[in-house]
Design brief:
With about 375 residues, the protein is an all-alpha fold. It has 19 helices and no strands.
């Protein structure tokens, strides 16, 4: 599994067609009047720019009463908290937003809140709850004609289908998402779904198709001047380059993604970039550096409560240790990663890893 798929789930596109662009300079700082009214459109602008830490720094100075009284601001606060690794707080404010939206009859915010809660459930490894939330969100969005949210939910469902190995279903969901985004005149969403479609092609071994879709995502992100999406799209293409045997170019691209995420203070996606960097370093033959990076990624995944990233990092470290002749250590890590993939509802990755485990166990048996 490519954990950047889960990062895509966690990036909530909150703007819609016709949204007025607000200069970032219009957002008051903590030193300004923190009791002044907050324009949700300004906060959405920062969310879309991937500037989650800035959103948290500003909104934490607002009174809880004000946030609880505005379902949309509560939702944006929850989204931003989740994106900087504070999932529990993010869940609290997303749930607060959902309840407030339902009480006030704000169907658009209700749909987006269900989408956000689905993403949080996904990150926690509860795929059943995630899919239920996304289907609810998509149903509400279709009823009110919010095609941007229809696109987001279809995109997220595609990510989940890909995770469980239903690649054809995933491709179909992405096709629905792209059509919905096109109807909503939302090119950002179209680029993001192209990025995810590239991952599905890669998982099917169709590397040329994957590279072409990934390149469309990168080009779209550059045209939109969206640093956050560009970072993820470049990272996704870097992992495809590794599979195609171009480790040197993969390292260059993943370093570009790392620089972008660090500039955005996006510590969650930075951890995923480091996992890909570790794999690229291993492919290039720099195994000492690769091991150090992958061990660091495992620590970060635990800190940010990212079980899928934790499992993938342990899987990748196991592969590296196996190549270095440390089969016993590799086997322990691989078994733990397989169990974690199963617990997170990622059977396709668990099955692939079981095949590797069987090979290592056979090698051990032959060496006795």
């Amino acid at each position: 599994m490519d954990v950047s798929t889960s990062d895509a789930v966690m990036r909530y596109a909150e703007d819609g067609p016709g949204m007025k662009t607000v200069p970032v300079s219009a957002v008051p700082t903590a030193g300004e009047d923190c009791l002044s009214p907050v324009a949700p459109g300004v906060i959405r602008q920062l969310i879309e720019a991937g500037r989650f830490a800035e959103v948290v720094r500003f909104l934490r100075h607002q009174s809880f009463t004000r946030l609880e009284g505005s379902p949309e601001l509560a939702l944006l606060f929850g989204i931003a908290l989740a994106r900087i690794g504070r999932q529990k707080e993010g869940h609290h404010w997303s749930l607060t937003a959902l309840r407030g939206a339902q009480e006030r009859g704000l169907s658009d915010v209700e749909a987006r809140a269900f989408n956000a809660l689905g993403a949080l459930a996904f990150e926690a490894g509860d795929m059943v709850e995630a899919k239920e939330h996304w289907r609810k969100a998509r149903g509400i969005a279709m009823t009110i004609g919010d095609y941007a949210t229809v696109g987001r939910c279809s995109n997220n469902i595609g990510i989940l289908e890909n995770l469980v190995g239903q690649h054809a279903e995933a491709a179909g969901a992405y096709t629905v998402a792209i059509a919905a985004y096109e109807r909503a005149r939302f090119p950002h969403g179209m680029a993001e779904s192209q990025h995810n479609l590239a991952i599905t092609h890669r998982d099917r071994g169709r590397f040329r198709d994957a590279f072409e879709a990934a390149s469309r995502a990168v080009e779209g992100a550059r045209e939109l001047e969206d640093a956050e999406l560009l970072a993820r799209a470049v990272a996704g293409r870097a992992e495809i380059r590794i599979a195609m045997g171009d480790a040197a170019e993969a390292i260059r691209e993943i370093e570009e993604a790392l620089a972008l995420h660090r500039d955005l203070e996006d510590v969650v996606d930075e951890a995923e970039d480091l996992r890909i960097l570790g794999v690229a370093l291993a492919a290039s033959g720099d195994t000492d550096a690769a091991e150090a990076v992958l061990r660091d990624t495992i620590v970060r995944a635990l800190r940010f409560e990212r079980p899928l990233l934790h499992a993938a990092s342990r899987r990748d470290l196991a592969a590296l240790l196996r190549c270095r002749g440390r089969v016993d250590e590799a086997l322990v890590l691989a078994v733990a990663a397989r169990e974690q993939f199963e617990a997170c509802g990622a059977p396709a990755d668990a099955r692939k890893l079981q095949g590797v485990i069987d090979e290592m166990q056979a090698t051990q048996g032959n060496s006795l």
